[in-house]
């Protein structure tokens, strides 16, 4: 469903814009239809930039992105606009994702109106069906974002995104700002909706426990590069890259990583090596 080839997104920074920041530096990956790929790494490693680059919310510097066989990196602005309903993003801050001045009803109905998905009565039925699907009461449809909790706002965001029945969703740490009990509810709901709709997902998080629960496959990102990728159980139960080992050790022991773990290698050009079927690890020559 999703194929990424050698994707790069570079920024210029500094007062004179002479410093090059390689936020995404040669990422290649594939996501099978109906599955979820978890993307994990520390803050600032490029996870969010990668997710936004896949949807061309940020224009990549180089590389190709294919969604269901369509190279979206080669689409014109008008072609991309027509294609956008098929790919959606859930942002970290649900409140900031919604217009604070309009009711929840209009937030969910707006995409349907813009894309002309039915008449007034049809849109009304669809909105009420979606609000029930994400576990909210119709009484909340007349409220505005500031009148709802963080978990309720995130459910409204889910309903809004599902209204267009997208093929691909990028979820950028959608529960990090919520209480633990609410996180579990939203994650369970997201997983069920993705399964029922056969939706392909990229789920971004820095939480190994969340990634393990949500993902069919997992990719580990360091400084703009994917250093390990494969089935979730293989990568997290049998980590091969030094950085993956550190992440897993830190998440299971809540302590500093033992000094016996190997340090970052230096020198040589990186390449991906398949250590088990479907399990790839970056090594240096």
Automatic annotation (TrEMBL):
> What Pfam families does the record tag this protein with?
ABC_tran (PF00005)
Q: Which residues form a coiled coil?
A: none
Q: Where is the ABC transporter domain?
A: 2-248
Kindly state which keywords UniProt assigns to this record, in alphabetical order: ATP-binding, Nucleotide-binding, Transport
Question: Which GO BP terms, alphabetically?
Answer: transmembrane transport
Task: List, alphabetically, the InterPro entries matched.
Answer: AAA+_ATPase, ABC_transp_ATP-bind, ABC_transporter-like_ATP-bd, P-loop_NTPase
Q: Which family does it belong to?
A: Belongs to the ABC transporter superfamily.
Instruction: Specify the protein name.
Output: ABC transporter related
Could you tell me which species this protein originates from? Answer: Methanosphaerula palustris (strain ATCC BAA-1556 / DSM 19958 / E1-9c)
Q: What is the lineage of its organism?
A: Archaea, Methanobacteriati, Methanobacteriota, Stenosarchaea group, Methanomicrobia
